[in-house]
Amino acid sequence: MNNLTLIGYLKKQIKNNGCGSLSISKLSSYSLEHNELLHHIALYAYLTDKIHLCGKNEALYMECMKIKNNENYIRDCKEYAGIYDAYKEETGEFQKEDEFKAKIRKRILELQKEKSISNYRIYTDLGLNPGNVNSFLKNGDYRKLSLNIVRRIWKYVERI
Q1: Which one, of 80, 77, 42, 6, lies nearest residue 51 by Cα?
Q2: Are 152 and 146 in contact (CB under 8 A)?
Q3: Read out DSSP for 29-90?
Q4: How many CB atoms lie within 10 A of CB 110?
Q5: Spatial distance between the Cα atoms of 80 and 47, rounded to a whole number of angstroms
Q6: How far is 94 from 99, CA to CA, in rounded Å?
Q7: Each residue of 24-83: pLDDT tens digit?
Q8: Which H or E run includes 117?
Q9: Do the beta carbons of residue 39 and residue 66 sit within 8 Å?
Q10: 41 burial class (0-12, 13-18, 19+ CB within 10 angstroms)?
Q11: Rounded to an integer, what distance in angstroms lies between the CA atom of residue 27 and that of residue 70?
């Protein structure tokens, strides 16, 4: 089992991309020339509580402040979602999540058959994307729906 933390993952990614240091002030300067690491470094600075050391790079400091001042920013920003997905991939979390989704899917399909509930009713009543719901339920494409959405479907089908 891999015990890699998100901070450990960020350190590894930053070092693997050519910066030989994890000093926030050095990373701040480094990110001026390597903008592709801006979000990695901003997240690292935020998680290690070192935002105050990002002053050399205004873009980095502003990114850190967006994270600090808006708790939904990390969740809504596609760059951070990509970083988190890569972290989950490396730690095997996606595999565990997919195995759990498979168990829930099996139960949903059993309940659907037992209660004669169509996919149409599920995605219409819950306001979900029809293509993603059908792909998950018919084909078992576990990446189409988040674990929270799968749980919502499961609870809904159990309730009916």
Answers
A1: 42
A2: no
A3: HHHHH-GGGHHHHHHHHHHTT-GGG-TT-HHHHHHHHHHHH-TTHHHH-HHHHHHHHHHHHH
A4: 11
A5: 13
A6: 8
A7: 888 888 888 878 889 999 999 999 999 988 887 899 999 999 999 987 888 888 999 899
A8: none
A9: no
A10: buried
A11: 23
Question: How far is it, in rounded angstroms, from Cα 22 to Cα 20?
Answer: 7
CA separation (Å) from 32 to 1, 26, 57, 104?
A: 36, 10, 7, 46
C-alpha torsion sign, points 38, 42, 43, 48: positive
Q: What is the pTM of this model?
A: 0.61
- If DSSP codes are grouped into helix, strand and coil, which group holds residue 137? helix
CA dihedral 18, 36, 81, 40 (to 10 degrees): 50
Query: Tokens 């009543």 appear where?
Result: 125
